[in-house]
Amino acid sequence: MSEETTELPAGLRAVADLDLKPALEAMLMVVDEPATEEHLAKLLERPKRRIADALRALADEYAVQGRGFELRFVAGGWRFYTRPEYAAAVERLVLEGQTARLTQAALETLAVVAYRQPVSRSRVSAVRGVNCDGVMRTLLQRGLIEEEGTEPETGAILYRTTNYFLERMGLRGLDELPELAPFLPEAEAIEAETQEGVPSFDPDAPDDGPGAPAPRGTDDADDQTEL
Fold first, then answer.
1. For residue 185, what is the enclosing H or E element?
2. pLDDT beyond 50 at 142
3. How far is CA 20 from CA 54, 55, 111, 191, 197, in A?
4. Which of 13, 130, 135, 159 is the most exposed place for a label (fewest CB within 10 A)?
5. CB atoms < 10 A from the CB of 208, how many?
6. Which tens digits make up the pLDDT trace of 164-189?
7. Helical residues (DSSP H) of 129-202, grouped into ranges
């Protein structure tokens, strides 16, 4: 007796004509949890026994070929996994740039951007009293901040936080930031300080002149702390 008793859409009928092993590979590449033999059999319109045999054959082929991945039967279903001996390579890919902890300098800089955005590098530096160029580059590379146009008066690039910043902070929007903005200097005060004595952070200028901030170390060096 035929297992097909109902009329299927033309698009789905072709599934039964697909090569079994490639079809299984394609499906298993996109599953987010182990797929059962029964479910795969239903989707591919094949007997469950054929599906089971094909999956075991694929698993054996990958093992013999020494592929970087393997097909495992786990939790009642089948799914691709990276082979344990290649874990170091996978960890390097997944964790690259994610294991370095943001230092105090980076967190301070990120806070200024978050509460004063869009804001230029010079204004961030004025608030912190230290050159923030290195830390700003780090935050850009990590996807926590991004460019947001230019300042009309000076043409300086403005920066804002990203959606990734919200994800990492567990926020739905910037309106959920803690009420800390009142504790930061007003823009007018920052500009006044900049004109009255805060250094321009010219790398060739002496850093021991009148009004220069106390040495705090370079942010680039500070931002190498690892977990």
1. none
2. yes
3. 7, 10, 54, 69, 74
4. 13
5. 6
6. 898 888 787 888 888 765 555 555 55
7. 133-141, 163-169, 187-196
Tokens 């590979």 found at: 25
197-203 LR contacts (CB < 8 Å, sep 24+): 198/125, 198/126, 198/129, 200/122, 201/122, 201/125, 201/131, 201/133
Cα 31 from Cα 42, distance rounded (Å):
15
Instruction: Give yes or no for a contact between 25 and 58, defined as CB atoms under 8 angstroms apart.
Output: yes
**Residue with the two structure tokens 């009255």:** 196
Residue 200's contacts (CB-CB under 8 Å, 6 or more residues apart) are 122
Residue labelled with tokens 């160029």: 133
Angle subtended by helix axes 20-28 and 37-44, to nearest 10: 120
Q: What is the DSSP letter of 109?
A: H
How many whole angstroms separate alpha carbon 204 and alpha carbon 202? 5
Question: Global pTM?
Answer: 0.42
* Of residues 92, 90, 122, the one with CA closest to residue 109: 122
Q: Dihedral, CA atoms, 129, 134, 140, 141, nearest 10 degrees?
A: -150
